UniProtKB/TrEMBL annotation:
Pfam family, one: NUDIX
Name of the protein described by the UniProt record: Nudix hydrolase domain-containing protein
Cross-referenced Gene3D superfamilies: Nucleoside Triphosphate Pyrophosphohydrolase (3.90.79.10)
SUPFAM superfamilies recorded: Nudix
Record InterPro entries: NUDIX_hydrolase-like_dom_sf (IPR015797), NUDIX_hydrolase_dom (IPR000086)
Domain Nudix hydrolase: 1-158
Amino acid sequence: MTQLILFTKIENETCILLAQRINPNKDFYLKLNGPGGKAIHEKNENIDVCIIRECFEEAEIVLRNKKLLKIFEETCYSTKEWRAEPCLQKEAKYIVTLAIYLHPLEEPPKHTEPHILGPWNLYKIKDLLKHRNELVPILRENIELIDGKIKAYEQDILDLPINAQKLEEIKIKMEKQPQRTQETFNFLNDIELEIPEEEIPEIVDEQFPVLALNFGKLSSYKIQTLIKYKKKIQESIRPLRRIEHKIQTIEKSYKGFKYLSIFDKIERKIIAQKFGENPTIAELSKDNTILHKFRDTIFEFEIHKSSTNKLTYLKLRLSKDQTQINGTTNGKQTWEFFHKNYSKLPLI
């Protein structure tokens, strides 16, 4: 497994090119790394060829062999195929080789893998030394080595011709991009930093809990990422809001109603199985047992209507006062009355 350090100087500050790992299903989620990856061992690809291939695939930068310098290589036993987790030989399932390379940054990178990596940005070495926990393990553990090797990079290698105009283009291009080093580690200083929305990567749902748990340490870049995520969520739930509103309207109209409440609790299931959950008076009247049960019963009632004034359902409750109705009903009537006038309305 390989990592490449593409370095340059901006205003006498040594900077290296890194991108954030944004796939929550991959190792080292939200950590920073350089170009690099896994050698294709099925094709007997060596690590030198691997780093050249990975750099082109991830950033479309072509490396020059004469300037490519390997500064670190370590082989260890591991329990996992693509992670260096040192263990005893008898516990090992894999042998993993890690390598770090240096190469001057000579052309602007391209963002070729937005599904797994955030945009490429320059980070100051001095800031990374203070905040190494933002890096993937191989870089975190070797950041001092990287700093020293960049300073000691052989003069004869650096003396090889470099296109000065290209370097100036890199400087201009990278300075136009938000400096993640300042943003990530000096949050209060860059709170006003605004990045065009189209340049902010979209996060997936699985990333949100990670960001939410670290709300006290979020950079303005991550906050803007969350704001973009919020807008996406709002767009997706707008149709659901309308459905929710309709359901709430129905729920409100039914609030306080009891399912087939004129029957005993034991009877309700039997009635529902036989006549459905909202039977009509006409349907219930076909059962002589029900007719006999409610023949002399007095009910309190309400007739509900739709917005177009159409009768929709009949609400019946057993009246606490079962004395005979004489004259004014005051919202009370008998089964015979409902059968005669509202026999086809669903009962609730």
